[in-house]
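Sequence in, structure out. Go.
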Amino acid sequence: MRRALCVLAMSALPAVVFGQASNPVADAFRQNEQQVEKNLIAAAEEMPANKYAYRPTAPQMSIAQIVVHLSQGNDYLCGAIAGTKAPTRARVDTTASKDALVARLKDTFEFCDQALASVDDSKLGEQIPFFGGKPWTRAAIMTLTTGDWADHYSQLANYLRLNNLLPPSAKKPGM
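Output:
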């Protein structure tokens, strides 16, 4: 009995010592989502309300358009990844107030937090219908989502700098 317990303890040791997770991809995706959520919400909050129509050039998205796009994307992408339907929400468009747009962004990240909690690595290769076209793997949609969040945070960070504001990720702790 003692020997069996010792063998069992020793077999679990590498996972404890090296921090191996049983779902390293899903765990990394959730960690990324938590950091992105923090930065995107902070960037949306940092931009003054009177700048929500700001865009550096006419073809670019405004702050309000980015926030609406992210909110819609969060519901669709996190729902697709988790295999769950996003909540039905009243329409919010770019003419809504900053407070309404930031609140919606927060709501959609809360949905992502809840939906992604059940995602694990066992179904990364599962084919999921995507934007009504050819199915994508769950892993591919997760990768696309990570890139989309990074792309839009980069936009917001640049827009903040163009308005003499510091992006959240550039601030020292406590600023």
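Check: The longest strand covers residues 127-128. Residues 4-18 have pLDDT under 50 and may be disordered.
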